[in-house]
Amino acid sequence: PYETFRRLRAETPVAWIPEPPVGNWPSGPGYWAVFRHADVKHVLRSPGDFSSHLGATQIRDPDTPEDLESVRAMMLNQDPPDHSRLRRIVAAAFTPRAIRALEATIEERARALIASALRQGEVDFVEVAADLPVWTLAHIMGVPDSDRRLLYDWASRVIGYQDDEYAGLSTADLDSLSPMAREAATQRPESFQHPDGRPVNPRSRAALADMFAYAHALAAAKTRDPGDDVMSRMLAGGLTRDEFEQMFFLFAVAGNETLRNGIPGGLLTLLQHPAAFERLRDDPSLLPSAIEEMLRFWPPVMDFRRTATRDVQLGDQHITRGQKVVVYHASANRDETVFPHPDHFDITRTPNDHVSFGFGPHFCLGAHLARTQMRAVFSELLPLTIKQTGEADRLASNFQNGLKHLPVSLT
Ligand code: HEM
């Protein structure tokens, strides 16, 4: 889409986009799309004019007013001051200091994953990469390791609503789950207990119900036996029931889907730029700037939405109160007024003011954690010879810049 984004930045940097019906969804009211870096940052830093709460943060409106009400309880979909209150409850677990304390554990896990992939020789790198974020997330949340694939399944089913294959990428085997997860499963047998272990109902609604049943079972266990984990912080933080469920949902998706796409997306970008890959092998001290460039070039999240709280001017467009405003991180990251030669993949690019982690009050809480995981994986990959052995298969989504499969050989 980058050529289209370039043209839009030049011709209609704030453009009205109609929302025709897609599949079985009805048409939407349409939205303003924002393509330039400066405008994207302006929208993201101005929650007073562009709210995350009024209509939540996805292009598509929630199905029902009740769904909107629930999802608005999520930290991601709040404005100050509720947003700040919720963020304070969990922020301490994600500071650079807290993440540094986890670094050696993450590196060890990444080493084991890549060593196992190397023994197999030919792998689907998306599968390999997916395990690290989900394992790390389980560790931080206080989710038993045996249940971590549930996080992966739920996220696939919620994010994969536009892509049948993705939504069906279930890998959790009921027998391997903790007793707590099995107990939660009995509350929703129709979606957990399929003869082949797959969820019966592949769509997000059922995934959410499963996830919340599990979250409450875990909460009961943590109330009896609190730990130094995010779940225990959430329980001590005085959240409402909706805020609690939605926070669990937010972490399950945000800490998992993004890197599961970002790590393979970064590798694919390196494979498509062999000279840059060689240079990085020769000088691994470039890894931090290379990772920023991978994130600029392959933003795991392509857009987020806000809603205008009042009539407001943006660029040369007049936006009316209540209209949707969608910022395109993927376009902002290629803005020629900020990034010289924006379509050139330059692993030494400094400064690199990409917006892949967002900007303003909702700036990604997991950014340090994400960078640490990417560094851990790519440090292990650099000494290897890696060849792409088949098509990189993309996820059908207008939100997540996703890969479903990336077959590679490792030697
Ligand atoms: C928010 C991207 C990894 C947790 C965000 C936002 C973006 C983003 C763009 C801003 C949303 C908005 O403006 O409405 C990414 C990318 C990642 C990544 C590209 C990986 C490369 C993670 C990880 C976690 C995480 C590993 C950790 C568990 C969150 C949370 C928020 C958030 C909790 C909400 C913050 C708030 O509302 O204040 N992320 N993320 N993310 N991210 Fe990430």
TrEMBL record:
Alphabetized SUPFAM superfamilies for the sequence: Cytochrome P450
Keywords, comma-separated and alphabetical: Heme, Iron, Metal-binding, Monooxygenase, Oxidoreductase
Disordered, as annotated region: 180-200
Domain of life: Bacteria
Key word Nucleotide-binding present: no
One Pfam family, short name: p450
Family per record: Belongs to the cytochrome P450 family.
Name this polypeptide is given: Cytochrome P450
Organism listed in the record: Actinomadura yumaensis
